[in-house]
Design a protein that fits this description.
5-stranded antiparallel β-sheet, 1 helix
Length: 147
């Protein structure tokens, strides 16, 4: 297993260091850093602070995903589906949690609100051309490859 060190800074003394649930977990849990409970009304989103800033290595991104238990049991997931923390961002890590359930949900200080996966990515240069290479699929879009 590859391990890297991610430098982080606590912006709030109550902030909790990200943790992995198991030795083979891909995502590190991020924790709510709150002065008081936050209730998210049904169908609305609220930004939840973590109290942490990080140095994501160049060539990597910090990708913020839902915690499956929180999404399944309370209907709470990141409003943008996947958040992206770029290597040059040094501000506080925050998660916009959307309540997709039909009832209000309350987040407490120290509650696990999302998970972050550190992953490499490829930066691209975009080259405009007059024609694209042909493929078997061609321009077939949504649902074109079957069920």
């Amino acid at each position: 297993m590859n391990e890297m060190i991610i430098n982080f800074k606590k912006l709030n003394d109550k902030a909790i260091t990200p943790t992995y649930g198991t030795v083979f977990s891909a995502g590190a849990d991020l924790y709510a850093c709150l002065d008081e409970d936050v209730t998210i009304p049904a169908g609305e989103a609220v930004i939840i602070k973590t109290g942490l800033a990080m140095e994501i290595p160049v060539g990597y991104g910090g990708f913020i995903y839902a915690r499956s238990g929180l999404a399944a049991r309370q209907g709470l997931a990141p409003s943008n589906k996947v958040g992206v923390i770029d290597a040059d961002y040094r501000g506080e890590i925050m998660v916009s949690l959307f309540n997709q359930s039909k009832k209000p949900a309350t987040i407490h200080h120290g509650e696990r609100i999302a998970q972050m996966v550190i992953a490499p990515f490829a930066a691209a240069s975009f080259n405009q051309v007059d024609e694209l290479e042909e493929t078997c699929r061609g321009t077939g879009g949504f649902g074109s490859t079957g069920k």
